[in-house]
Amino acid sequence: MKIVVAIARILMGLVFLVFGADKLFHFFPQQPLPAGPAGQFMSALFASKYIVFIGLCEAIPGLLLLINRFVPLALTILGPVIVNILLTGCLLVHTALPSGLIVTVLWFVVFYSVRGAFAGIFQARVASAGAVRVDTIEAGR
Question: In angstroms, rounded to a whole number, what is the distance separating the alpha carbons of residues 80 and 41?
Fold first, then answer.
């Protein structure tokens, strides 16, 4: 299982590092924008320079995955990016859906290996250190 997780982590790290860096440095040939709403959406991302932020949100976690440091943080940052890839694939550019599904499967494989780091966010209720129980206050009266 460790080998599968390592392969998934490295593949996902490479994908996000390369394609995130491309959004910053444009080393792949520029493809024509798709027609319709998808092209308008992409045009708005480029015109507003929001694509640079997206590139950073892909490249930095991709690098963290490759060097195997702060993997839970990298997965946390990549979660919303992957959701946007899937939504764009479902709603705008249907050719992006298969790559989004592959990255999602890789994300879940890596997530499963570090699921202990996320245990706290799956608790329904946690008592804080400064909280005083109501029955303790009433008993003191």
Answer: 17
* Domain ranges, residue 16: 2-139
Nearest alpha-carbon partner for 82 in 112, 52, 102: 102
- Going by the DSSP 8-state scheme, the letter that residue 70 receives in this structure is S
Residue labelled with tokens 């490249």? 59
Q: How far is CA 82 from CA 28, 47, 76, 131, 136, in A?
A: 21, 22, 10, 37, 46
Q: CA-to-CA distance for 85 and 96, rounded, in angstroms?
A: 7
Contact 82, 65 (CB under 8 A): no
pTM greater than 0.85: no
φ/ψ of 127, rounded to 5, equals -80, 130
Q: What is the pLDDT of residue 122?
A: 83
The tally of domains found in the chain comes to 1
Question: Which tokens is 97 given?
Answer: 């859906």
Query: What's the pLDDT band for 113 if we cut at 50, 70, 90?
Result: very high
How far, in Å, CA of 40 to CA of 33, rounded? 8
Helix (H, G, I), strand (E, B) or coil at 8: helix
